Amino acid sequence: MKLVRWMTVVTLLAAPLGAATGAAAANESPARGSAYAVQSNGSVAAQDWQGNTDTEGENEGGSGGETVTDGSGADGGGSALDGTNPDDVNPDTFTTDELLMRTDSAEMVLNGLAFQSVQPLVDKDGVLYAPLKTLAASYGYKIGYNKTTKESTAVLGNKELRFKSGSAVAVSNGEKVMGAAPAYTLKGSLMVPVATWAMLTGSVLHDADGEVRLQWTTRPIAAFTVSPKEIFAGQTMVDYRDRASHPRGLPIINEEWTGRESIFLFPGEYTITRRVQDVYGIWSEPYSVTIKVLQPNMPPVADFTTDKSVYRIGEPIVYTDRSTDDGNDIRKRTWKGKEPAFFVPGEKTITLQVEDGGGLKSEKSVTVYITDEVMYTREEFGLRFTPVGEKYAISGGAVLDIPTVPYTFRSQKAQMVRSNSPETWVEEGIAYEDRLKGEVRFLFHNLNQIGRPVKMYLIATNPNRTSAKVGIKAFGMGGPIKYVSTSGRLSTARYLESLAADAEPVWTSLKPGESKVIMNDLNKVPIKPGQVFSAYGDVVTDKEIQFRIVVLDPSKDPLTEMDTLKIMPRDGLHVRGTFYDADRELVITEPLGYEPKRIVLGDRKMDTYLYGLDSTTGRPEHNLGNFGVLYRMKVEVAPNTVVALNARGGHYTGAFLINGQVVKVTNDSILRNANEAAVLYRTGPFAETLDIVFTLASGSNLPVTMMFLPIS
């Protein structure tokens, strides 16, 4: 490299906005053929090729008006060893980073290694510009963009620089600084004045004969984190996590802390500061974290009352929780012995334990007495007071004594694909395929036992000679999760919520012969081994479309792999096929609730199974259980009537849409057997018309009975 000796003293390059400058300084710029380092007070120091610097004015980062060649100062981070004598630095180990650029050339050299910049060094109106992306990457800064302020950002450690196209004002850690000239955009790259960048980073800038050289010392970053978020005086052990790093990967060999404590004894605001030193003796900028130490955490106070101290059997008990915490931070409440009513006479002790965010606990117990006088039996109480979406105990045998309601049904032209065989996947492949047109409901219910995570895709292919459209309407999924009943309940509830929203279809266009993955929520999350996945989705098309359900390793592309995959064999137990007339309206002509009545669903007698076809084999198929069928019914219900669901074939869970509201069976549990009933609706003092929409939930057992029970 050509060595040139410069001894020219230049004037002010740039200064923070509002800084006082002389008239001559404000109108002059550094002369070409000089080397200069920007000081924190806005002065520019001339420098000879050995790096010895003469300074105009006082440098805030050093003492006695002297500085070193790394462009030290407030932004540069002080002297090379931040207070040590520069003469003590070993010149063989104290290294300076260097970026070499030439005007109108995109080839640049960083520390001896040539590379291509995104844009060349540009001389525009006497000002040298370089792309921010190149400068930032050379220094180890991370680039970002703020869409709100339309500013480009460069971040290194706790230092942030901001630039805006068309503005000469830059921002350094929130402070506005007047740069050498406005930044501008060149072919999509933000170009910033090299002199402005040198000033903001405390670099030494050499400019001679079309060659520009930036020199700086890369410092370590002393980052750290403090936890936990809430720190209580005299109580919390504070954890400090090391996040220090070096842009060049150099080892960190030393550190200094101020304000660090394991336990802070008094409340208030504290600033903790750290510096670290690298293997060359270079100290980082101070890195600070400010924390707020709270008053010592006091235990919460558990407190509750009951509205009475003596109750009859089946009499409702009103509990009032009056627990308090000094920080209003009760995180957990644990009740023991709490019941909405008791059905055995004697003393009953109820206990409440509360726990705050700091782990401190408190407990209180209240004892009530239950007489042998009966207000309500257990079943009467359940009818009257069980919240909608919850369950109560009944006599399963007595349910069979309730008369059934005769009904007919009207089938509507609706197609439904049920992909449930094999229910358990043991290999990749095509689970099902068919060509369909119009409205189609898809039902997916499967368990992954392939031995590795997979994804399921629904692929639509246009076999026509003209373009086609595919729209996605209602959709709901449950899982992936290991609990089959939970996946069924969630998918049913979410599908009914989506159905009630009645949103417009989201359309996808397909060119002739084109294939696309649709219903992308299906493949958002891989299905792990042992997990169950259930989903319902409604599709509408304007032409016949070939649909394929593909199960594949997440790393593979389903569109390129689908033609190589085989159809999965059926498992001989579950259902796979395309079914028609899959929407049913149950017609009930009598009002219900004036006496106990029940409607039986999924029994194959009154609710006969759909007929369909497995398109992959040509085999006729019956839709056992009628899963995937969408039922609708409108019933007149008497005043003071409970509508409840009772499982007759084993456990059941799912959801119902009643007058536009989704009711889960149940909110937090399932119907485990025939001795439990879930409350779906409770009428008030007047008769009501109920619009009920439902589909029987995958993973549950049939039949089920919907009961209409008067509250006597």
From TrEMBL:
<feature type="region of interest" description="Disordered">
    <location>
        <begin position="47"/>
        <end position="94"/>
    </location>
</feature>
<dbReference type="InterPro" id="IPR013783">
    <property type="entry name" value="Ig-like_fold"/>
</dbReference>
<protein>
    <recommendedName>
        <fullName>Copper amine oxidase-like N-terminal domain-containing protein</fullName>
    </recommendedName>
</protein>
<dbReference type="Pfam" id="PF07833">
    <property type="entry name" value="Cu_amine_oxidN1"/>
</dbReference>
<dbReference type="InterPro" id="IPR012854">
    <property type="entry name" value="Cu_amine_oxidase-like_N"/>
</dbReference>
<feature type="domain" description="Copper amine oxidase-like N-terminal">
    <location>
        <begin position="111"/>
        <end position="196"/>
    </location>
</feature>
<keyword id="KW-0732">Signal</keyword>
<dbReference type="InterPro" id="IPR036582">
    <property type="entry name" value="Mao_N_sf"/>
</dbReference>
<dbReference type="InterPro" id="IPR035986">
    <property type="entry name" value="PKD_dom_sf"/>
</dbReference>
<feature type="signal peptide">
    <location>
        <begin position="1"/>
        <end position="25"/>
    </location>
</feature>
